[in-house]
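so i finally got all the pieces together for this one. its two components total, 616 residues if u count the protein bits. some of the lines might not be protein, just check the labels. i wanna see the whole assembly predicted at once instead of chain by chain like last time, that was a mess tbh
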Amino acid sequence: MRIGIDLGGTNIAAGLVDDSLSITVRGSVPTPQGADAIARDAAALVRSLCEQEGIRPEDLTSAGIGSPGAIDTSAGTVIYSNNLAFDNVPLAGMLSEALGVTGRIGNDANVAALGEFHAGAGKAFSSMILVTLGTGVGGGIILGGAIYDGFNGMGGEVGHMVIQKGGVPCTCGRKGCWEAYASATGLIRLTKAALEKNPNSRMAAIAEERGKVSGRTAFLAARQGDETGEAVVTEYLSYLASGAANLINLFQPEVLCFGGGVSHEGPYLIDRLKPLVGAELYPVGEKKTALRLAELGNDAGIIGAAML
Amino acid sequence: MRIGIDLGGTNIAAGLVDDSLSITVRGSVPTPQGADAIARDAAALVRSLCEQEGIRPEDLTSAGIGSPGAIDTSAGTVIYSNNLAFDNVPLAGMLSEALGVTGRIGNDANVAALGEFHAGAGKAFSSMILVTLGTGVGGGIILGGAIYDGFNGMGGEVGHMVIQKGGVPCTCGRKGCWEAYASATGLIRLTKAALEKNPNSRMAAIAEERGKVSGRTAFLAARQGDETGEAVVTEYLSYLASGAANLINLFQPEVLCFGGGVSHEGPYLIDRLKPLVGAELYPVGEKKTALRLAELGNDAGIIGAAML
């Protein structure tokens, strides 16, 4: 039995993962302030899960944790994380010490991709890129069954690929990154701009009914046949497709998966996306990258962490 | 002793490559029409090189060939090549038969990257991307000492990454690919546009002296302090930097090398490029991708083919 811990800005989620990569028991606690408190609370959560299963923490095969930020996987440290205000935190070692079992650490997006590859949408494929469409655009690249993160462990920043040079400012400091267009944040920006121009649209009524504009607003309107919503979704999908085609032309992974909030639009999203991506691909033979929705949701992070 | 063959649209170049990855003898013949004639002339070239070295073709360790087009490396076939009008040509097998030694085949850009990695600018590094700035923007990705080309052998199309959505039409059918801006062709387009607006510039005089506009025109003018040339070079380098930063954010290779015609601008190019790329990178720790000029020129293709 292994333990996987998914460290987020709001919660620490953890689960015991068996040999068939199923989560047998899970739990979560709010994320406290500071590295020491995080390691302590994560260890306590793990001990309580072990107790529920009737095993001792030191009998776990391994303990893995997925953390936001820049990770030195071999040293077991978080180099830095804006999100958690971490600066060179030896989190893997802190876990090892608290639990009496070898702790391992990985970047949260990479770890989720590893879980999705082995236990989710990537199961039937030899290589995979997971693209997470949330507040930002994250991702993880799985080649040869393992996380690919470059010579320094910082690769796979799929969201920080400029697709519109000189375009919308990105949180990373560049302009025109894929993240600035294909994230939920980018979608909300497109939606708000369209609402300003079309205050009498069905989409405007939906936003008013719901009291806010979210990543769902334009999709809801488009599904109801609203022209304004349809235009936003069309523009959003066009940006999403361009970045996806870039990734395929570069990596030719056997499958490209989409996870995160926007991916909850489901088949409506992926079915509309496929022909747009197909039209932009560099010509290849008959073996084409499959496009899929991620399947595991938040479990991917726990399962992936357990596999580190 | 191994043989490496670099099949181009104009010439077939070949060389015998020893265990220290040096070319001991080399030669070339014009590329004839048709696959049978190409295999025949390539085999004859190899036999003449072997004769010069006093060895028998069947004593070669291996015979590798780098070919333009889409390659099925495991089947040993060129799936298609516009350049050579090939359609499912079993070139590796044709070579094997003609020479009595196992023939292997790879895409020419990938093969050149393999040579550059093992015997040239990549020698001291663990992973590399080679970007070739010629008529197009080609490239090859070397991870774990081997060519990375995706699950279908078609990965590594670094030039066909959109960096300016809706921008200049690319030969591949998309708009705004890196190739359309960072190739010599893209540089010439920028140069011609600037010449039309600035017919009295030093750059215009240089173009007239030389009787044509080439990828060198703007660089020559910029080196002489011409404002028009400087503006073109600045714009060109800005596009080059954006695509390079994209590749680094995705792959974090230990070294990114530039080859092809435009790279002959040498240190002037790379020294100006480095800070532009640096400014666009996603923040990483102290381990940063090195930027280098390729070292082997056309020999990379021969040496890489010999290593297949």
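The domain at 124-293 of chain B is CATH 3.30.420.40 (Nucleotidyltransferase; domain 5).
The longest strand of chain B covers residues 23-30.
anyway lmk what u think
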